[in-house]
Amino acid sequence: MADPSIRHFVTDRKSGVNGTEFTLSFSSIPDKDLIRQNRAMVARVMDTDPAHLFFPSQVHLTRIVHVTKTTTKEELLETDALITSTPWLCIAVMSADCVPILVYDKRNNAVGAVHSGWRGTVARILEKTLQKMHQTFGTRGRDVIACIGPSVCQESYEVGEEVVAAVDNAFGAHNELMIREPDHKARLDLWKANMLQLLEFGVDRNSIEVAGLCTVKNNDYFFSARKGDAGRFAAGIMLVEHG
């Protein structure tokens, strides 16, 4: 997603100072000052003020917030996706196996950051975010560039009967998102499920980048809840002004 009008990032767990792991979630460790330092470091790298770095309080639902300069922390509670058209406001989501998705509307100069675990995926949070961007900014599929970030891959993501039923309900019983296994289990492809939502919105396949990095297989670099990690890495995006 190379474009001079945006900056974006994905952190890893190895970037911490003095040998500490680089987690960005206040709920992951007792040392809140370290989290503040880590977030300030991200803001510094992105060349924005720490007060202009926005993280939602994620709960695996489908609430979407339009971020402006006056958005408060309280407005970000129980939220899993952020959108903005204001330059120098960096919006980001945290992950440890769930799918972080960044989107950029190059025509209307708007961006989005989406956190999509299996619950968010079957609830089509990405589709809802794109629709919200269309309502708010006029976003259309042909103008969107998107990136599906590091997250659990299909090979590493065995799910049970509840998830299988939810996926069948959301995408149809004959979907090609799962490798079926005995005992009503399956291996779910979250990358493909979210790509489908982008394609259905009209995003060109060549405008979708999939990182292809499994957080379980690459646990040395990325936090993974399936591996028992409490830490969270982040993916974020920001519009910049020129001239």
What report would you give on this structure?
With 243 residues, the chain is of the alpha+beta class. Helix content is 23%, strand content 23%. It has five helices and 13 strands. The strands form three sheets. It has a six-stranded mixed beta sheet. A four-stranded mixed beta sheet has the order 1-13-5-2. A three-stranded antiparallel beta sheet has the order 9-11-10. Strand 10 and strand 11 (186-188) form a beta hairpin. Helix 3 (125-137) packs parallel to helix 5. The model has no long low-confidence stretch (mean pLDDT 95).
List keywords for this structure.
243 residues; alpha+beta; 6-stranded mixed sheet; 4-stranded mixed sheet; 5 helices
In brief:
Helices cover 23% and strands 23% of the residues. The chain has five helices and 13 strands.
The whole-number mean of residue pLDDT values reads 95
Q: Please provide the count of β strands.
A: 13
The number of distinct helices, counting runs of at least 4 residues, comes to 5
Give the ordered list of helices and strands.
EHEEEEEEHHEEHEEHEE
The coarse overall form would be globular
Distance between the termini: 21 Å
Low-confidence stretches: none
For the biggest β-sheet, the strand order reads: 3-4-7-6-8-12
- Structural class, by secondary structure, is alpha+beta
